[in-house]
User: What shape does this take?
Amino acid sequence: MSDQSPRSPQPCCAAGCCSLLGRRDFLSSLGVFGGSALAMQLNWFGAAVSQAYGDTPRSVSSRRPVVRAAFTRQPMDRYWMGWPGAAYDIAASQQRYTEVLSKAGEQLGVTLDIVAQPLTDDARVDAFVQATSESPPDGVILTVMGLHPDGWSQVRRFLDHRGDLPTLVFAPQGTQFTPTLQPFREMPRMFVGATQDVQWLATAVRMIKTIHQMASTRIAVVHRDETREQQLDPLGTVLCHMPLQRFAEIYDATEDSVEAKDLAAVFRQHAKDVIEPDQAEILEAARTYVANRQLMEATGCQAVTMDCLGLIRDRRTPPPCMAYMQLLNEGTCGACERDITATLSLLLSSYLLDRPAFLHNPSPNTVRNTYMGAHCTAPTKMDGFDAPDAEFVLRSHHESDWGVAPQVLLREGQAVTMMKFLNPGELMACTGTLLGNIQTRPDDGVGGCRTAFEMAVDDVNDTRDIRGHHNVLIYGKHMPMLKAYCQLAGLGISHITGKSV
Assistant: This one.
């Protein structure tokens, strides 16, 4: 360890405006330090730029997800009395819905197959059902364009004949009353989005895309000496088990990596402070990132989780905490301690909520009836992949006091969601508010991992009732979105204490 006093680095550009290694600006950030030739020097990195650093991590298949959209209403050009009313312009409204859907498809990389001819009778609904059966999309979005008279008959007919095809029904204000929605509350693999927000159609596209992404993701599970593949139903995610020695050998080969040297400089320059690590340890931390990316590229995986503590315990490779921070910031995923359900949870946050999450160890505070969480890696892009970074300090890995770990400074007062997959078919979740960061210094009498927080949890009488280990923390309150996604994807969801939601 370095015995140098903490230092405050200078910004990496004169204006101090460089953001820490986002998905889209990673190469340009490295270019500041002479790393602009990265893509030419390494084939794996050149591929990763367009795949892992683009809008989505690379999928097992290059096929874009397909969403088929249609509009349901009665066969008339203008309503009279009843909802949505004569003032509702049918043609202009359908054009508006089409524009929102088309823009979302373009932005999210989803192929939108929009059927312009409205489904106005049983024959057209049956033809639509047949088309989806013969050429199944990844999901269907139906927009309801009338309540009276019997504006939902076409929706009911499609749902009765669609099989298990994921289906979202957009019901804008003016097309539903409370009794209208009751039959669909528990219906599997569908969700009714009843809202005045027409932009929710873009959320619907993202939800269907997320199902496709989860099913197209391969996770490198690095543990012991086994080599096999395993599919997780009902998600469809594939686990690629591989031996620890494979990662260790890839790490050894990065000893002279120019890319690691450039990345180490980026870490130093963007850190708010550097406390325990010296420059050699920061370089080793950057090498773990290069090794993880090479492993993922070689195995066609979009995420990695490994028995990192075993490698650290034997001092075979240094802690990969900085590598996992960076992978999370990119929208891919690095998860600690070969925790598969935590990896799935991190991926779901990235895909569905467009932001990384913080995997942590749980620790109830029985004095204040609050919840404390801590781990030695965390993303800095907690506000979203295109948002500014949170400040972070370079620390040592707390359990070994070796290597480099980020202490990410979380925002006091931030509304948050905490969730985790209990198994591939069920989530648990809750919401709360961050109360502050917990500091760990050698002489302050407080242990645990480097990024640590205290949280007030909503609707929990005793924080010892909170289930799970390696739960993930997400900025923002997302319970409605998680519940809607679970219904659409055919997953169960419960409160983090076990009660219903």
About this structure: Residues 279-299 form the longest helix (21 residues). The radius of gyration is 24 Å. The chain has two domains: 26-59+217-495, 66-213.
